[in-house]
Amino acid sequence: APVSSSKTNLSRTMGAMPTSIGAPRYAGVSVLGCAIAMVAVGGCAQGIGQLFAALVMGIARNPSMKEDLFTYTLIGMGFLEFLAIVVILISFMLLYSE
Fold first, then answer.
1. Which is nearest to 94 in space by CA: 27, 18, 11?
2. String of b and e for 79-94 (b: at least 16 CB within 10 Å)?
3. HSE on the CB side for 95, CA within 13 Å?
4. Rounded CA separation 92/82 (Å)
């Protein structure tokens, strides 16, 4: 008869899922990592809001700089969108990793 160790029973009771190799796989850890990484998307949204708030304030202070300020805003928006896309890609990698 196979001998069952207490470590194996403990990992089965704590939510570990056995894989084909035999090592336990913790399914919730990848979801938790994905959720933590997605918090950065909220930071990107806050940055976009602050960027456009600064644009409105800058145009209100000096309307003749409107075109230059809008160009700088679009450059900053591009950086923030790139950061958001990278964060989403990393979070999907964490979600579907083993």
1. 27
2. ebeeebeebbeebeeb
3. 11
4. 16
pLDDT of residue 11 exceeding 60: no
Query: Which pLDDT score, from 0 to 100, does residue 8 have?
Result: 54
Q: What angle do CA 16, 21, 25 make, to 5 degrees?
A: 20
Transcribe the chain into DSSP letters. -PPPPHHHHHHHHTT-EE-SSSSEE-HHHHHHHHHHHHHHHHHHHHHHHHHHHHHHHHHHH-GGGHHHHHHHHHHHHHHHHHHHHHHHHHHHHHHT--
C-alpha pair distances (Å), 75 with each of 50, 70, 92: 14, 9, 26
Residue corresponding to tokens 């899922």: 17
Q: For the whole model, what pTM was predicted?
A: 0.67
